[in-house]
Amino acid sequence: MSDWTIFRLFEIAEIYISNVDKKSRKGQTPIQLCNYMDVYSNEYITSQIEFMKSTANQSEIDKFKIQCGDVIITKDSETPYDIGIPATVTEDIPNLVCGYHLALIRPKNKIIDSIYLSKQLASDSSVNYFSKMAAGSTRYGLSNGSIMGTPILVLPKKQQKKVARILFALDQTIEKTEALIQKYQQIKKGLMHDLFTRGVTPDGKLRPTRGQAPELYKKTPIGWFPKEWNCINLGQMADIVSGITLSSKTSSIKTLSVPYLRVANVQDGYLDLTEIKKVNVDPKTFENLVLKPGDVLMNEGGDFDKLGRGTVWQGEIEGCIHQNHVFRVRVNRKVLRPFYLAFWSESFLGKRYFVLSSKQSTNLASINSTQLKAYPIVIPDVMEQKRIEQRVRSVNHKIGSLNAQLSKFVQQKAGLMEDLLSGKVSVIVDK
Length: 431
Prior knowledge:
Layout: E1 5-8, H1 9-12, E2 13-17, E3 29-34, H2 36-40, E4 44-45, E5 52-56, H3 58-64, E6 71-74, E7 76-77, E8 86-89, E9 96-98, E10 102-107, H4 114-121, H5 124-133, E11 140-141, H6 144-148, E12 151-154, H7 157-198, E13 217-220, E14 223-226, E15 230-233, E16 238-242, E17 256-261, E18 277-281, H8 283-289, E19 296-299, E20 301-303, E21 310-312, E22 321-322, E23 326-331, H9 338-346, H10 348-357, E24 359-361, E25 364-366, H11 369-373, E26 376-379, H12 382-422
Parallel strand pairs: 3-9, 4-8, 17-22
Antiparallel strand pairs: 1-12, 2-10, 3-5, 6-8, 6-10, 7-11, 13-14, 15-26, 16-23, 17-18, 19-21, 19-23, 20-25, 24-25
Helix pairs in contact: 4-7, 7-12, 9-10
């Protein structure tokens, strides 16, 4: 720790609190405006960001024009933990001006590296400092004095550069992995559309499109599909049961304490079992509601993205039941495979029904068991269903592998920041 020196931010950087708002005014100069979300959502400010178009007067441009090497932090927010979020400017961007609710920090280059400073501002010690200094009740903000007085642990410049290189390289790896995940998610959307409208023939190929071979298709109530497929309502192929109402009382003297699934546990294509709660039920209720491997879980309602999403239960927790806001769908496997149903409900075709038929209020939607029983699903024979599942599983496996890598990189970064920015680990550079 002997190499470390504590400086206040004003000693190692110039600080400018922006007052440039989003309004465009006649007679002012057109600019690109770097606003709150540009900083909050990005660790690095680059020309790849689509900045807002606005105007500013010349004195504002002169004072708040952003340069390569600047660090920008969020100054105001609705919570004390969303202030002080930093981003580093890594290139000169024409006519880019720092907007309102932000502080522009220009490091004194002889003392501190900009990326190193940004990482120090994102460290646990800075986060704790900003949350303590935040003033407000419904909206929080940092005063000019609290920003200027931010304590920063500073290493000699060579060590700073090494820390910055390590963390920047890891950030690039994280960014590339996130981009790959987005790419494969887009590939999956297109793949699922093709699979659920064209299918997979026994030789492992997609059928020609309807435009290429119209004779292979027929019209159904929900669109054009291969002529061998049938459009059947879910209620004709499955037993659909709502779960336990938590406020209900049991009349039985003997009760069982059992785990149950909530809407939060049933995600789109997977289960989040991080937090599992328990409920007391009588033995008969437990027997009626206990989940079996192959049951498909579908949500009754909530946010639009939660509505109807399907996940296959594979016996992850023994003796588990489900809440009334989660439907259990037990399919007739001679006709419909569980994973085919789950993947169908994840596709655009499956989600469209829930959006159009649900009861909707502000940002919320819900379906009832009658609507779920009437859910139209277009199905091939079970062997083709299996071939379709295998294709979806293949891209899911790729996305899952990338997500696991991303989680590992994020954990590595958190550990390195804790070690390299706190003085716990010495930073050694080649002489």
